[in-house]
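Appendix B. Chain record.
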Amino acid sequence: MIVANWKMNPATYAAAERLTAAVKKIPAGRTEVVICPPLVWLTDFSHKESEIKFGAQDIFWENPTGPFTGQVSAQMLTEAKVKYVIIGHSERRILVGETDAMVNKKMRAAALARLKPILCVGEDRAVRRQGLAAAKKFVAGQLKKDLVGIGRAYPLIVAYEPIWAIGGGKADTPTTAAEMAWYIKKLRPRARVLYGGSVNSQNARNFLQLKEIDGALVGGASLKPAEFEKIITAANQ
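Structure tokens predicted for this chain:
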């Protein structure tokens, strides 16, 4: 499974349309490809026929409507033909102060609406400096808080994204990422675990060839069709 998180990109509808058209031409093979564009582009593209599935970058826990300026409900995403939703991305946790309690409410809302949440977890540099055991403990704490009320049998998708690796151009080592994926699956046996954090065409296969890792959450590289195609190709090898 390869998920493209476009974040707040691109700046214009024309650029978003060109990017979507280019991605749709990429042979998906046996890989499940999900595009998560900004909401303003999502409603235009997600209705169009394609092998590609679409996801949102966030969701609000109240549903279906209400006095919640700037928020988007599960029903609205469902109406937009969205299948997936990213929840708890570190950029939202850091930039807008999203807490584990808020993440949990969003997880519950997505599950109730039968959307497929992609839950993001991962430690910062200070925690990783304490060692892998500390990173595991941190991630276990996130999962415990974020998944209150979500049964262990729930078919969960977890994106392990060490915060220090996101956008910095320096990914985690495949061996360590695989160990973290194995640990997450030990805690949540039915989970699919994706790796995220500076994934690109040069390093994707190193992660995707490992049996513990079920895919990737791709940021900046997903905005470059040629680069993104190489990542999908690596997933199919």
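Further analysis of this model is presented in Appendix C.
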